[in-house]
Amino acid sequence: MSTVKDAISQAVDRLADELHALSTKIHDNPELAYQEVKACAWLTEFLGKQGFKVEPGVGGVETAFRATIETGEGPTVAILCEYDALPGIGHACGHNIIATSGAGAGAALAAVKGQLPKGRVQVIGTPAEEGGGGKIKLIQAGIFKEVDAAMMIHGFDRTLLHQDLLGIARATLEFRGRASHASADPWEGVNALDACVQTYNAVAMMRQQVRPDCRIHGIITSGGAAANIIPEYASATFYMRAPRIDTMWELYRRVIACAEGAAKAAGCELKVTQHDSVYEPMKSSRVLLDLFKANMTAVGLSEGAAIPDRKGSSDVGNVSQVLPTIQPMIGIAPVGMAIHTRDFADAAVKPLARQGMVAAAKTMAMTTFDLLAEPARVKAAKKEFADGA
Amino acid sequence: MAPEALDQAKSKVTEAVDRLADDLETISLQIHGHPELCFKEEKASGWLSDFLEKQGARVERGVGGLPTAFRATIEGAKPGPTVAIMAEYDALPNIGHACGHNVIATAGAGAGAAIAASLGTLPFAGRIQVIGTPAEEGGAGKVRLMEAGVFKDVDAAMMIHGRCGTQVWRPSLGIIKVKCEYFGKASHASSWPWRGVNALNAMIQLFVSLDLMRQQIKPDSRVHGIITKGGDQANIIPEHTSAEFYLRAPTKDYCREILRRFEGCAQGAATATGCTIKVTADPTVHEPLKANFTMAALFGKNLERIDFPVDPDDGEAGYGSTDCGNVSQAIPTIHPYIRISPDGIPGHSREFAEWAKSPLARTGMIAGAKALALTALDLLANPGELQKAKEEFAKSG
Asked: Are both B182 and B168 inside the same structural domain?
């Protein structure tokens, strides 16, 4: 390892207690999407202290931030933090670890600023990953426009260099029919619930003709007013998930066709509302992953067994669709423990989580250093990104 | 015609039916014992034609281009209106005369034969015809005969139908027959299912949509179908499926309304599954029976005259369909039901087939023959009654 990387490693070790304390504080004060006021304040305070120029509330998102150190003309590498919690079960997704490993990586780079090659390091605080699509807002606000490469890690039950993410497009389907007495005059009615149920059936039938790595799931959100009224209104929400963006939109189109068909069959009117936040699938970056892998090995992290069939979704997918981005999984909980469980929330402040956070902070800092040191790698990552559209 | 003269003529005719009763029952049992499917009723139509000829009617065989149709005419004193009595004699596949057409045939032929035998030439203007109408069961023989002009000069028509009760009026449902086909894309159902477009999914959705729709259609309507092709092999995503449906309703308008909604269901399933669709409606539409209460009242009075009881409608049973509906939409027509079985025996059952050759069926057949003949006499003897029937026909929608 180079002397700079040694210095990075030592800086993270030096800050480890402080980072762990920060992680525990965030963990014990869970804040929901877009309400991460404390976490945002603590993280920006910490980064400011390390010498970052801090811009809170960037992109018009109050609990977002951007912390920058600059060493001259060169690539911009972003390290992303998340720090929102889940309703009811707190930090069961371990975002406290994402936050502090990102901030820790930034702090370590700030600590070696004098030895950093030319370029810019940004730690970007991205709120509301859990359903709010904070990164989508930041992309739309231009926060990623100048960024050449981005990375973050996610806590998991094992370390995996790359894990596919499914894109999600969401739609609310509303069916309007005509109410009538369900016993006296049912034939005067147009049954909106029939359309809703038929949509559900049609989607279920369609699943046979859908790739097994895609997911379609939905609920009926309104199913009628009273059993003795032919329902005049019914609605459903469906999520369409796929590992590729084109497949996701194809799936979306097919689900809407199911709803259109059902509306036609039942004689109802259909209104489709596509939800604003579309989480896109993860586009991988071999170049960035290779660098990350080498550094991961150097800090003593090794990959666990692949689990290709367990996939979630995240708004980092959207970032990965606009610039080279990676999100390796870092083991912070015992193998087999599922995320979004209370057990995982408990694990997110245990020694194993601290260990993972420290290792992740080091790996991200070193990978960032590599990119600044070898701008050709950034170019290669961008070329790979452009070629692999 | 003076009432006394008509009364005398009626008595002569009823006596003639009684005289011919054994012969008629023999023919009825012969037809019952030799069930012939639609358009293949060679024996039945031969036996009936021969019998009518023997009793003095002028018989034309194979009228309207249908080899198993016939027309037997009894002329009147001078030209005038034509009253037709219809006879059906086709059987059902597998279950024979489970619709009792042997009784329809002999009641109709018996009415004509008794008139011919007892009156020779009718003592008034006009004529009475017995029209042998093949293929009621799915062949719409009467529609063919109408198209061929056999009913062109007929002013009023009537027939009886055997049932588990006697009712002078019961509605029947119109039918639109529809074939629906879906075309998708075949693909290996295990290795590449996502390359397929499943035509069977579309078909099943159509059935489910129709089931869902049933809540919102009137309960006296019927929608029923079968899948005639549901795919080729279970390891191929089906590329072609086909089904046949009957859409039935008590009015032509509601039949069309159901067809419109059926098409919505059918198109919707195509949209949902990405299949293409072909809907083919059979050009022959079975029309619902149009009531004629003037003629029904005459028929009821004649049942009274011969002391044959009319039953209250049993309420529970639904309605069938008949090509007589098409005749009833063109000219004043009645299609009364005569008891030939005990209460609650469904038509098109093996049990009903048994009852169609029972002593009860003989009694019903004789009563039917008499009431048909007497009602035909009423319409010709009292032109005012026929006029009333025509006016009622013109007025009702």
From this structure: no
The pLDDT of residue A46 = 98
State which residues form the domain around A86. 3-164+280-387
Same-domain check for residues A34 and A113: yes
Reduced to 3 states (helix: H, G, I; strand: E, B; else coil), residue A106 is helix
Residue of B nearest to A255 (CA): B272
Is residue A375 within 8 A of residue A122, CB to CB? The reply is: no
Question: CA A321, CA A385: separation in Å to the nearest integer?
Answer: 9
Instruction: Please report, for the domain that includes residue B272, its CATH number.
Output: 3.30.70.360
Q: In what order do the strands lie in the sheet with A233-242?
A: A215-222, A233-242, A167-176, A269-274
Assess whether A155 and A237 both reside in one domain: no
Do residues A318 and A136 make contact, with C-beta atoms less than 8 angstroms apart? yes
pLDDT tens per residue across span A88-138: 999 999 999 999 999 999 999 999 999 999 999 999 999 999 989 999 999
Nearest-by-Cβ selection for A260 from B209, B265, B271 = B271
Question: pLDDT tens digits for B363-377?
Answer: 999 999 999 999 999
Q: Does residue B46 sit in the same domain as residue B133?
A: yes
* Contact call for B269 and A208, based on CB within 8 A: no
For residues A49 and A177, state if they share a domain.
no
User: What residues of B are in contact with residue A258 (Cβ under 8 Å)?
Assistant: 272
Shortest Cα–Cα distance, B256 to chain A (Å)? 15
* Amino acid (1-letter code) at residue B315: G
Domain count, chain A: 2
Q: What is the mean pLDDT of chain B?
A: 95
Task: Indicate the residue type of B377.
Answer: L
B204/A205 touch (CB, cutoff 8 Å), yes or no: yes
Given B281, B313, B347, the domain boundary residue is B281
Which chain A residues touch B275 with a CB distance below 8 Å?
A: none
Cα separation, B312 vs B306, whole angstroms: 18
Q: Are residues B140 and B111 in the same domain?
A: yes
Do B99 and B181 reside in the same domain of the chain?
no
Q: What is the pLDDT of residue A2?
A: 81
Interchain pair B212, A264: CB under 8 A? no
Residues paired with residue B306 on neighbouring β-strands, in sequence order? none
A36, A38, A40, A45 alpha-carbon torsion, rounded to 10°: 180
Query: Are residues B38 and B135 both part of a single domain?
Result: yes
Nearest residue on chain A to B206, judged by CA atoms? A265
Of B201, B212, B216, the CB nearest to A187: B216
Mutate to test the interface with B, among A173, A175, A180, A187 (most CBs of B within 10 A): A187
CATH number of residue A188's parent domain:
3.30.70.360
CA geometry: angle B219, A236, A241, nearest 5 deg: 130
pLDDT in tens, B157-172: 999 999 999 999 999 9
Q: Which residues contact A168 (CB under 8 A, 6 or more apart)?
A: A239, A240, A241, A248, A278, A279, A313
CB contact under 8 A, B267 and A261: yes
Which residues on chain B place their C-beta less than 8 Å from a C-beta of chain A?
189, 193-194, 196-198, 201, 204-205, 208-209, 212-213, 215-218, 237, 261, 264-265, 267-274
In whole angstroms, how far apart are CA B183 and each of B170, B197, B243, B253, B267?
Answer: 41, 8, 12, 30, 12
For residues B24 and B151, state if they share a domain.
yes
Q: Same structural domain for residues A222 and A262?
A: yes
Which of A238-242, B106-110, B245-249 tops mean pLDDT?
Answer: B106-110
Picking from A274, A300, A333, the residue at the C-terminal end of a domain is: A274
Q: Same structural domain for residues B343 and B203?
A: no
A223 and A284 share one domain: no
Residue of B nearest to A208 (CA): B193
Q: Which residue in A has a C-alpha nearest to residue B262's C-alpha?
A: A265
- For B201, nearest residue in chain A (alpha carbons): A205
The answer to whether residues A232 and A193 belong to one domain is: yes
Domain assignment of residue B294, given as a range? 3-172+289-395
Question: Which residues of B fall within a CB distance of 8 Å from A190?
Answer: 216
Using CB atoms, pick whichever of B201, B212, B215 lies closest to residue A205.
Answer: B201
CATH of the domain at B308: 3.40.630.10
